[in-house]
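Recall that a protein's primary structure is simply its ordered list of amino acids. Everything else, from secondary elements to tertiary packing, is in principle encoded there. The following example makes that idea concrete.
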Amino acid sequence: MSDAAGDDAIRFDVTDGLARITLSRPHRLNAVDPVAIERWRDLAEEVANREDVGAVLLDAAGRAFCAGGDLRAMSELAGETDASGRTITRLADVIHEGHRHLRESAKPIVAAVQGPVAGGGLGFMLVADVIVASDAATFSSRYSDAGLTPDCGVSWLLPEAVGARRALELVLTSRTLTAAEALDWGLVTEVVAADRLPSRAEEVARGWLAGATGAFGQAKRLVRAAAGRPFAVSLDDEALTIGQAFDTPDAQARIAAFTSR
């Protein structure tokens, strides 16, 4: 059912405030199996709650970023139970729990996308706040190829990124976007040459850590939370958050430097 231990399926490291999460099943185009799914949820919760993490870099091993769920592994697991559909629902819920932890955290996330992204891989990618793609990356849905429907937050995250009309085109057709098209659609933040991808993504993350790290994290949280609540609630949250930020030593030092100019 699983051909990789959890630590091998998704590698994880925290160095100098930067958490690096690496999808690492390149032989399966980094499609997640049940073991990887559980680890994804656990790592996401850990990252969201760790005080020593100021930024997150999400990347992947091999030629693809992520092909979504490993249908072969999930079919094998479902075949061992009397309730195969409920088994798949449970696995989807575990992935979604991990997505919520990262999405709702006050930790800015950059994704480095080096190759094909398909199906639920779109959801893994779109959990990030900044997406840097290689010029060799491609993007497609492919759910209907397997007679399945979107998961991994794709039905919400994709229209948020590109609008409902374009999201429907991706999930209802076999269209595959090039990196240039994905940039034009607003699906990714920027496109770089393949050999520049790792350094550029790390540059983004290190920039957050070198700057007002806490302010970047809270700005991400405020923007992400806004879509799901009334305007007045966001205004109250903004007022409270900027007041708390104003009193931090970091802000006081930066304000002093700014006003002195």
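The two ends are 62 Å apart (CA to CA). The chain has twelve helices and nine strands.
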